[in-house]
What we know:
Distance between the termini: 33 Å
Radius of gyration: 17 Å
Low-confidence stretches: none
Number of helices: 10
Helix content: 55-70%
CATH superfamily: Glycerol uptake facilitator protein
Order of helices and strands: HHHHHHHHHH
Number of strands: 0
Structural class: mainly alpha
CATH topology: Glycerol uptake facilitator protein
Number of domains: 1
CATH class: Mainly Alpha
Amino acid sequence: xxxxxxxxxxxxxxxxxxxxxxxxxxxxxxxxxxxxxxxxxxxxxxxxxxxxxxxxxxxxxxxxxxxxxxxxxxxxxxxxxxxxxxxxxxxxxxxxxxxxxxxxxxxxxxxxxxxxxxxxxxxxxxxxxxxxxxxxxxxxxxxxxxxxxxxxxxxxxxxxxxxxxxxxxxxxxxxxxxxxxxxxxxxxxxxxxxxxxxxxxxxxxxxxxxxxxxxxxxxxxxxxxxxxxxxxxxxxxxxxxx
Length: 242
């Protein structure tokens, strides 16, 4: 297991479970149809737990370009390794979204609302106002990275040992993502992760999906730039306060 493969697999599992819970809630004729926001936020939080548990020993389980870039800004991660981590995260996110499409194929076929189909893959604003939308993503990612830095002392590095029962160490970050979703997710759907949004959005654009409509590329820069800015701000503040 290399760091590249770990980031790919960890991010794939994160998106498989995260996009999967959205599919279960919003697509027609699923067992979990209309089960609501609590189910979605819980599914995403547990997806984070699973991804960290698998990838943590081998890559540190960044699973998010905003985290990788923030660590590099803080001097805790080599800039030379940033591109390979981000590539692995993007590929893993795209693969996870593909698996969700394959698993829920029949339900995509029964869903005629393009907005619901798009929501499975990527985020969108409850109220479209780009200024406030990017602020929402900056704040959400700031909370994520700032708290993660304090949880880990900004040492998000491979442990070289399998986690085993030590996987409980992933719980604080899972609870953190759960809290962000419950408290801050209502405006933009809390992407807080460029790979989480862009990789699946690309899959939405290229996969043969009934009633898929537009992939909303006009909005796509918000969940890319916002989380990166939020992560950088968190890293800079952490460096000043430590």
